[in-house]
Amino acid sequence: MILLHTCCAPCALKCVETLKDERVAPTVFFYNPNIHPYTEYKSRADTLKDFCKNEGLPLIEHGGYGLRDFLALTAESREGRGRCRLCYAERLDTTAKYAAENGFEGFSTTLLISPYQDHESLKEIGERAAARFGTEFLYRDFRPLFRAGQAMAREKTLYMQKYCGCIFSEEERYIRN
Ligand code: SF4
Q1: Domain that holds residue 79
Q2: Model pLDDT, residue 177
Q3: Ligand 1 atom nearest to 165, measured from its CA
Q4: Most CB atoms within 10 A, among 22, 32, 69, 144?
Q5: Residue 16 CA to ligand 1 centre (angstroms)
Q6: What residues pair up with 30 in beta bridges, in sequence order?
Q7: Mean pLDDT of the chain
Q8: Number of domains composing the chain
């Protein structure tokens, strides 16, 4: 049984399918203090709840909406790669800690499916979190499945977000347009 840190339902689809094909049973772990504003957080959380219910997947929603904590966390680096690395570390450290303390064999993350994330940083930070908390990081390169997963999410009419998550990424998404 592994704990699957999950950013959203569309990214979860193919990750869950792949793990199930490997006979790995994932428990979905929604811990994303980076998702703002609250209405966006709720849309993603509610979509994931419906998805997990339909798929019969166990879901843990951890921490709730975390705007203030996230802003404090990223105060030292508000721009680009530095901010994202802090964001990954917060989410993966928390997932690794929860996995280690609650009897999971290891953890992984649906962030590994996105070609828009810093994949090498995710791998490094996931492995570091595993070593820190004494658990295993199931590294997978899910990226070749990204387009198929997005198409499947559209077919299922799942809510599809327009930006990565934080208010900075929302600005980066729309200020150019
Ligand atoms: S752009 Fe995405 S990964 Fe980077 S800090 Fe914002 S929410 Fe986190």
Answers
A1: 2-174
A2: 55
A3: 7
A4: 32
A5: 22
A6: 61
A7: 96
A8: 1
